[in-house]
Design goal:
The chain has 252 residues and is an alpha/beta fold. Helix content is 35%, strand content 16%. Strand 5, helix 3 and strand 6 form a beta-alpha-beta unit. It is elongated, with a radius of gyration of 22 Å. The structure holds 3-(1~{H}-indol-6-yl)-1~{H}-pyrazol-5-amine.
Length: 252
């Protein structure tokens, strides 16, 4: 997967050099390219923002700069094998559609993602209009709170998507067991996890996990996931299909 990120703070993405995403880059599973938006400015101050039409607080990011940057990055990034290829453009914003595990799975199928994290009060809306007619443009929110810019959201999205790519997670089962992953544990929060020692400061590991009885262990884990989901995120249980609910109810 090719990932292009255009930002006025490319140094914000240093964390993408470490851990799972960093290793995926070393292996070539992820090809992440960072671009400094100011490289497309033409004034001595490298200005990327201006006052908002209609007044109001803050500044808005200029459309011309973004337009030249996106055009250049799309042109540079086109694979020789497929000159018509275009990226899926992802714009983090508090007003976007929620970024969920389902959206992460959808993005993980894409060969090319282009992230355009904004700062200030956002990007002139004509940029989304311009590219919405040429690319698939997704405005996404990573949560109902307001950040100072889109870069942290890009880090979240790239990690959530990157870990889904083939070979990135050491144990392929981990993705299948994710909270919100399709399948038996779909839409359930992870249950508690334990490792050695069997007793730590008087806290014992649940006996069932030491039993070696895999069927009972799987059942215990699912029941714990149900209990935790019911306690912390009861609204998620409404998403469960009736089979899953019946299967749980039959046991309790
Ligand atoms: N989910 C979420 C996204 C954002 C966000 C995204 C871009 C910008 C640009 C300036 N402030 C921003 C905030 N906040 N919260």
């Amino acid at each position: 997967m090719r990932v292009d990120i255009i930002s006025i703070f490319p140094e914000y993405f240093a964390p993408l050099d470490v851990s799972l995403v960093g290793k995926a880059r070393e292996r070539g599973t992820l090809d992440i390219r960072l671009h400094q938006l100011r490289d497309w400015t033409r004034d001595v101050h490298k200005t990327v923002d201006d006052t908002p039409y209609g007044g109001g607080p803050g500044m808005v990011m200029k459309p011309e700069i973004w337009g030249e940057a996106i055009d250049a990055v799309v042109e540079q990034g086109r694979p020789e094998a497929d000159p018509a290829a275009l990226p899926r453009m992802i714009v983090p914003t508090p007003s976007g559609r929620p970024f969920t595990q389902e959206v992460a799975l959808d993005y993980a199928k894409e060969p090319w993602l282009l992230f355009t994290p904004a700062r200030y009060e956002g990007i002139d809306s004509r940029v989304m209009a311009e590219y919405g007619s040429r690319l698939r443009v997704d405005e996404v929110s990573i949560g109902d709170y307001v950040l100072a810019g889109g870069e942290a959201a890009v880090l979240v999205i790239v990690e959530a998507v990157g870990r889904l790519l083939p070979g990135v997670l050491g144990n392929a089962c981990s993705v299948a067991d994710d909270s919100f992953a399709p399948g038996a544990m779909a839409n359930l929060l992870e249950g508690p996890v334990y490792t050695k020692p069997p007793v730590w400061r008087g806290h014992e590991v649940p006996e069932i996990l030491l039993s070696g009885h895999h069927g009972k262990i799987a059942r215990w884990r699912r029941d714990e996931a149900f209990r935790r989901t019911s306690d912390k995120r009861p609204e998620l249980l409404a998403r469960l299909d009736s089979d899953a609910l019946d299967a749980h109810d039959r046991r309790v």
